[in-house]
Amino acid sequence: MTLPRSFRFSATSLQDYVDCERRFQLRYVLQVAWPAPEAEPIGEQERHARLARDFHRLVHQHLLGIPADTLSASVHDTDLHRWWQAYLAFVPTFDNAWVMPEVSLSIPLSKCRVIAQYDAIVVNAKRTDEKGMAIADRPPLLIIDWKTYRQRPSRAWLVRRLQTRLYPVILVQAGASLIDRARVEPSDVEMCYWLAEYPHTPEVFPYDAAAYEADVEFLSALIAEIDERIKGTSGSSSATDDVWSLTVDLKRCRFCNYRSLCGRGNVAGPFVDYVEEIDQGQATADQTGLDFDLDWGQVQEIAY
Hints:
Helix 1 (11-19) packs across helix 2 and helix 1 (11-19) packs antiparallel against helix 7 (162-174). The strands form three sheets. The chain has a five-stranded mixed β-sheet, with helices on both faces. It has a two-stranded parallel sheet with strand order 1-9. The chain is built from ten helices and nine strands. By secondary structure, it is of the alpha/beta class.
């Protein structure tokens, strides 16, 4: 078994491995296409995924300079309209900053390549008061990730997501040119999850040196473990000889399209559960299926 030559680790692929090693193996190593739906009814699942893509497209085009009125004329769905109007009310927050949409950055980590596709990076200009003293109300680099979760995820759940750990690490190591500096300090970075259904209360995560060092250590060990595991099975006579461990949390299987292949059910979980938080917002072992995150890290080219 081996990964494709073009493969780059991303937050999504690493999350797959942490959630279920077998899912990572099937999806990325064996590249098994299994046509089972993630949730039922499939029509509602597809609608939510389409709206999430449409929202990201609208924001991207607006940040590139297309007038809001022009884009608004193409919005006909009521949910999408609500998200879009909430975004238009939020984006003036960055009138004095440089907002870069869809930024792709990649770094080497544990002899592998890791990629992050940022929805937006806000470069904040230095601000001074009337005496010329610096006003440090915002970090130089702010990561914005647009989320269309139906229900608000708990902060504890977001803290555990690999995206929350990986995106700041990559920006620290590869973002110096964005602010015309020799290097980016961890304290220069902040991450913000902007929630379309809760636009006035985004989840913001400051960063510091201690968090950076812990994240680099954790991510490096995780990637090295996966890489060594793949190399260790590359000589198997059959790619199916070595079956990686399945998750012990069967809740995750309800919304995994490989459930029937793994003998863990033939019926997808209900969509109403797929988009709702487990335990009504309390931190639990897992809160899977809160959104349809597009794995831009594995996409070679996006055409709008």
